[in-house]
Write a structure and sequence with these properties.
CATH superfamily of the domain at 38-76 and 242-344 in chain B: YVTN repeat-like/Quinoprotein amine dehydrogenase
Largest sheet of chain A: 22 strands, antiparallel, barrel
Number of helices of chain A: 6
CATH architecture of the domain at 38-76 and 242-344 in chain B: 7 Propeller
Strand content of chain A: over 45%
Strand order of the largest sheet of chain B: 16-17-18-19-23
Largest interface: A-B, 23 and 34 residues
Helix content of chain A: under 10%
Oligomer: heterodimer
Number of strands of chain A: 30
Number of helices of chain B: 2
Distance between the termini of chain A: 41 Å
CATH class of the domain at 38-76 and 242-344 in chain B: Mainly Beta
Largest sheet of chain B: 5 strands, mixed
Structural class of chain A: mainly beta
CATH topology of the domain at 38-76 and 242-344 in chain B: Methylamine Dehydrogenase, Chain H
Strand content of chain B: over 45%
Chain lengths: 610, 344
């Protein structure tokens, strides 16, 4: 019934605009993602373009939840959100900002609701190991947040206004200007929600769940000549969230995040030699208010990382590429629970890539991290791709990866365990890629063996302590398919991604908690002249919440569907309006036990491209 | 709520009358006053931050057991977030829910909810009832809050100003342990006739549990047991650690013996001894990180209970032994079983 109403509505909508012409610009490939893809021989990469980013709320969780098989544990909408990528733990996914790993020094993970996607031009998702490239914690995969520069002598301004259920407001302003050798781009965004959604079959609602965040970015690039280029990146995020409660009598708390990222990058090409140098400063700051209205007993943390990444390349000939890299990272952590804790990591490594012929390529990366006080294993990545037929390619990859204990693991007062060993992971994967005219199909199998997994166990109700307890064996299958076709004024794009994940604790032979066996995302995008429609689906299978795989406390599987209708009001597509329906089937679901998520909700938007 | 309360009260009174009649006419037969009379009540803390606290029941003869007792008799309602402790008086059981900032008052025989106390409750830990007054330690405000049992109304607060944990009431004095999670070494003494602090007693470091027996307060700490007279409130002696015993904790006194644990082992020493025995009565062989071992330990009605909370990541296993240390049975209870009480 609900289906038919929507379909009828859809057809009416299209009929209204069927007289218009002009097709929407298709997805564009940018530079930064090309670099990542070039270094990912044997691994898959998914590039989420600006168009896709704009389709979702400006928190990184939603886009990845609907575009990839990554599972997110979200403590209620907009609250703390942590990933499980290919069956791994939250600390085993790296979030990489323009080549720099920005996972929290305290927690070892990124809270995906504290990343504003408005600040980025593309998000590149790469499943599988990558510690040789992005350092500690790159075991399940990496999420790359990129900014790009173009020198097309154009100016543009984009204004995006969004309003929806639960008094959710989003305002984003972006501008970019360029000459043939200079590009400056920047933006401001504000996102705010009362987030007081109703719970199903009850008169309760999400209490104390409101949040807001502000983000600012400013990037510039200057080309001295065709061989040398300087880039400057700035990104600032400031967010305040109340932590939602289930019972009115519970203590109301809030949490403030402040993140600053600065980086200067230099690129130089001199015949067969080339250089890439990055100097970055990453500052993370949090304050936890154990009582909403009080500023006493605050818990704070502040970490400043100074990072230098240097890469020296040498093109032996057109088919052989050799690189050496030296990275240095120094972090100092302060706060109510840390006493000027310092950590330095010196990374040295080499990279070799050989295009044997136009059908066979392989790469080898070897690196070693010297972390103060830690023995890190020798890390490597091996990858190869063989094109057997124009329509068929086989890719293989193997890597050794690791994760060092975080500041909290080591130093948390009364709980930190200074005797922890780093986690290590050895993994293999194989992908078959089939390409036909409009259809791409990928089938991947992987194996990941993790040792010395660091697990926090409780000392008492609220005090926990970390130990190297478990061995985990993960085996998975991934299926990916995309289809796109342009016929006349019609453009159709469909995508599907399914993952089967078996992530077992080897001592108990039980599936890890919060790892679904099945997750599938499925989307259709349709453009006709100035009108666009998209439908995004996320099916998530049941997850266990207890280590004994108790079925009684497992979370039920769910299907979420988001619909979006948009239209450009003029032929130049300056003014665009539309609306979104989220959770169209009004599914009652939770991704973390006892943290209900919103039912059906709506949004209206207007986007101006000037 | 009130209506319900009075109805229940009336019901209880009539039942009590009825039972006292029964008792006087035939001394041998005791009719249980509800499904959970004359049995063991297990408090399951649950996971911090989620409403997974629960109550389990085990019959006196260990033949029957039930989980999720509170939900079962109260229309599937969730009990709350972190069941820290339970206190019983003649009619009611007071369920102290730390992270819900509330006390659920239930009929102690049926576990039917009577009322919820929330006024001035802030991160409550333990409770005790004396002379129709309910005393609750409030770790959020570092004070003891007092309620009238007659109508569950708020009475007064006693400021302590430091950590407040377990309480014991003896005569006119209330003893509050100013130590938690193994840190702290003082006991504050409150005169409950005036609700004023009269003294602070210093024990050994790492004070972790207290018990009163025949006018003596036994306070267990990392290095032994400090004995305090409850008439003079003076330290009258010290029981030292026996060989090979480290950090004893969770002391319970039953029939003239102190029972306590250290890691996965359970020990027993006469209360008149000058040294704590280091020879284990029971090795539970429970495996786990040292801090989660013996999370729940109690000696009640001639049985020893020891819980394996399995890292709070699944349901607990509760092991039951007799006082000689022989293993009797094990039960699967709720998440984070932290104590066992005998309901009579």
């Amino acid at each position: 019934m609900r289906y038919s109403i929507i379909i009828v509505f859809l057809f009416n909508f299209f009929a209204m605009f069927s007289q218009e012409k002009k097709t929407q610009a298709l997805d564009t490939v940018f530079l930064e993602s090309v670099k990542i893809v070039a270094k990912s021989v044997g691994q898959k990469t998914t590039v989420l373009s600006k168009n896709k980013i704009n389709n979702y709320s400006p928190q990184l969780t939603e886009i990845l939840n609907f575009e990839t098989p990554i599972y997110f544990k979200e403590n209620g909408l907009g609250m703390v959100s942590s990933p499980s990528f290919r069956g791994t733990t939250a600390q085993q996914t790296s979030v990489v900002w323009n080549g720099i790993n920005i996972n929290s020094q305290f927690l070892g993970q990124t809270d995906f609701n504290t990343i504003s996607t408005t600040s980025f031009d593309e998000v590149v998702v790469r499943p599988g190991g990558g510690s040789t490239q992005f350092g500690t914690g790159t075991i399940g995969g990496s999420i790359n947040l990129n900014n790009n520069f173009s020198f097309n002598k154009q100016e543009n301004i984009t204004v995006n206004l969004n309003y929806g259920s639960f008094n959710t407001k989003e305002i984003a302003l972006k501008a970019s200007t360029s000459t043939s050798n200079l590009n400056i781009n920047g933006g401001l965004a504000y996102f705010d929600s009362d987030n007081d959604y109703k719970f199903v079959n009850s008169n309760k609602k999400n209490e104390n769940g409101e949040f807001y965040n502000k983000s600012v970015f400013l990037n510039g690039s200057y080309k001295f000549n065709t061989n040398q280029q300087l880039k400057l990146y700035t990104s600032l995020f400031d967010g305040l969230r109340h932590f939602s409660i289930l019972e009115t009598t519970q203590t109301r708390t809030k949490y403030k995040d402040e993140n600053l990222r600065l980086m200067l990058e230099y690129n130089g090409n001199f015949n067969k030699f080339f250089l890439n140098n990055k100097i970055a400063l990453i500052k993370e700051d949090y304050t936890y208010f154990p009582e909403l209205t009080s500023t006493s007993n605050l818990s704070t943390g502040n970490a400043i990382s100074k990072i230098i990444k240097n890469e020296f390349g040498y093109k032996i000939d057109n088919t052989l590429l050799l690189k050496a890299f030296v990275n240095y990272n120094n972090t100092i952590g302060k706060g109510t629970n840390y006493n000027n804790e310092e950590r330095s990591v010196l990374t040295t490594g080499a990279y070799f890539k050989h295009n044997v012929n136009k059908n066979l390529v392989y790469q080898v990366t070897v690196s070693n991290d010297n972390t103060s006080k830690y023995e890190s294993p020798l890390l490597f990545t091996l990858g190869s791709e063989l094109r057997i037929a124009p329509w068929y390619k086989i890719s293989i990859n193997s890597s050794k990866n690791y994760r060092v204990p975080t500041f909290n693991d080591l130093f948390w007062p009364g709980a930190g365990n200074p005797d922890l060993k780093p986690e290590s992971s050895l993994q293999y994967e194989l992908t078959n890629t089939l390409n036909f005219n409009n259809l791409t199909f990928k089938l991947t199998g992987y194996y990941n063996n993790i040792k010395d997994l660091i697990v926090w166990l409780p000392v008492s109700g609220s005090v926990w302590k970390p130990t190297n307890t478990n061995k985990v064996l993960i085996k998975g299958i991934e299926v990916e398919g995309t289809y796109s076709k342009l016929f006349g004024n019609h453009y159709l794009k469909a995508g599907l991604s399914y993952a089967y994940t078996r992530s077992l604790n080897r001592e108990t032979n039980r599936q890890l908690t919060y790892v679904p066996y099945h997750k599938m995302v499925f989307s259709i995008l349709y453009n006709y002249k100035r009108v666009n429609f998209s439908i995004n689906n996320n099916y998530t299978g049941a997850v266990y919440t207890q280590t004994d795989n108790n079925k009684k406390t497992a979370l039920d599987p769910y299907l979420l569907t988001n619909l979006k209708f948009g239209v450009a009001l003029d032929t130049k597509e300056i003014v665009n309006i539309g609306f979104k329906i989220k959770n169209a089937w009004n599914t009652s679901y939770q991704s973390v036990a006892y943290k209900p998520m919103p039912l059906r909700n709506y949004q209206l938007y207007i986007t101006l491209n000037i | 709520m009130k209506n319900h309360f009075f109805k229940t009260l009336l019901f209880l009174i009539s039942i009590t009358l009825f039972i006292s009649c029964e008792d006087s006419s035939s001394d041998e037969v005791y009719v249980p006053k509800g499904d959970y009379d004359l049995g063991f009540i297990v408090s399951n803390e649950g996971n911090f931050g989620s409403p997974t606290a629960s109550v389990s029941y085990i019959s006196e003869d260990l033949l029957e057991s039930a989980n999720e007792v509170y939900s079962a008799v109260n229309n599937s309602a969730a009990l709350g977030d972190v069941l820290q402790s339970i206190t019983f008086d003649d009619d009611y059981a007071y369920l102290v829910l730390n992270n819900s900032n509330k006390i659920e008052v239930v009929d102690k025989y049926t576990f039917k909810q009577i009322t919820t106390i929330t006024e001035n409750i802030s991160a409550p830990r333990y409770a005790e009832v004396e002379d129709d007054k309910l005393y609750i330690t409030n770790s959020g405000s570092k004070s003891i809050v007092v309620y009238n049992v007659a109508d569950f109304s708020y009475n007064t607060s006693i400021e302590i100003g430091s950590t407040v944990e377990e309480i014991i009431i003896e005569g006119n004095y209330l003893y509050v342990q100013n130590a938690s999670f193994g840190y702290g070494k003082t006991i504050t003494v409150v005169d409950i006739t005036t609700n004023t602090v009269v003294k602070t007693i210093t024990t050994g470091d790492g004070l972790n549990s207290m018990e009163e027996e025949d006018g003596i307060l036994y306070a267990m700490h990392k290095l032994g047991v400090t004995k305090i007279s409850t008439t003079t409130n003076e330290v009258i002696g010290e029981i030292t650690l026996g060989a090979e015993l480290t950090s004893p904790n969770k002391m319970d006194i039953e029939d003239g013996f102190m029972y306590y644990i250290s890691g996965a082992k359970i020990y027993k020493t006469s209360i008149n001894s000058s040294e704590l025995s280091g020879a284990a009565l029971i090795d539970t062989k429970v495996d786990g990180a040292s801090w989660s071992l013996g999370y729940g330990f109690a000696v009640e009605n001639d049985k020893i209970f020891y819980s394996d909370v399995k890292g709070f990541s699944e349901n607990s296993e509760l092991l039951v032994y007799d006082l000689q240390g022989a293993f009797l049975k094990s039960f699967t209870t709720g998440i984070g079983s932290n104590n066992v009480y005998f309901n009579d």
